Amino acid sequence: AEQVLPGLPGRPEVVVLDPPRSGAGREVVESIVERAPARVVYVACDPAALARDLATFAGSGYRLAELRAFDAFPMTHHVECVALVVPENVGGSGHDADRGRT
């Protein structure tokens, strides 16, 4: 991601982020924020790593709009989470209707 993001043209509407269990890390999150996407869909397999990365997003003007957890591995402690992260100035779930777009 650190190598791909800087070379992409324009501002992405949505970034889908599915990092390893250790999380995306500050460098990747900051690279994403620099691109100013309207939404980031973050798929996480470690809630602690997700929390660390969400703190980095929050410190960069983004907020958690929605969070869902999935028990993809029953009878284990593993859980998959899908988080929707949007800029602070976006209301609700970050959907176009919430931003006043038609």
Automatic annotation (TrEMBL):
One biological process term in Gene Ontology: rRNA base methylation
Family under the similarity heading: Belongs to the class I-like SAM-binding methyltransferase superfamily. RNA M5U methyltransferase family.
Protein name: Class I SAM-dependent RNA methyltransferase
Lineage, opening ranks: Bacteria, Bacillati, Actinomycetota, Actinomycetes, Pseudonocardiales
Binding of S-adenosyl-L-methionine, residues: 18
Domain of life: Bacteria
Active site, per annotation: 45
Pfam families named among the record's database cross-references: tRNA_U5-meth_tr (PF05958)
Molecular-function GO term, any one: rRNA (uridine-C5-)-methyltransferase activity
Alphabetized UniProt keyword annotations: Methyltransferase, S-adenosyl-L-methionine, Transferase
Protein species of origin: Amycolatopsis acidiphila
